[in-house]
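Spend some time on the protein that follows and explain the fold to me:
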Amino acid sequence: MIELAIERWSAWAPGIEQPADWADWATAPHQPDDAGEQPACDFVAPMQRRRLSRLARIVMHTAWPMCADDEQLPFVYASRHGETTRTFAMLDEIGREAPLSPTQFGLSVHNAIAGQWSILRDQRGESVAIAGEADTFEHAIVEAVALLGDGAESVIVVVAEERPAEAYDGWIDDVPFSYAVALRVSRADGMATGPRWRLSLRGNTEAAPPAAGPHALHFVRALHDGATLDHPWKTRRWTWQPIP
């Protein structure tokens, strides 16, 4: 069992960007139309911005407000599938026997977005890139709490996925649309600000089926209604409980 405080948070999905949009979505969750739109990321210089993939833009857009310019904070980037769009484009080039771009390859690896964050924000502390299963969100939180236990005052956690190409239909079924959720978390004791939550893990002995849709977005809904949240996945059952 772990406890943490959510100091602030931000989220993005196509057409759901502002806090009021997410409040409406939490009341009536729905699947937005993902037509490929992406955040402008005007806070990034043009020469650097053009190197950002759509997934990287989504991450930067949500993570940027979590950190002040003079702060050095650990960064946890979590994505189950990562840069599927870049990877698919390179596979297509291989199939056409076209030359591969070293830049595209370098930016397709799983920790590339964490590296871009470090460069763009001049962050010199720890950064972690992880991938798990459908409960990657909870694994990212466990990683963040470990960093808090090592002495970090706050940690930025970003969970993000991009809707993959149609060729992945039938293999990737847990990304109905592109999204990102960024959290700034701290220890639940002491001078913690923001809502406090307790996360516990037990075996899924009841064989409860997984909830439809991304786990991270279920948590965004819980942030609005303050309800206890269960996330069963295979043999694991995660439970989020608000701390009064």
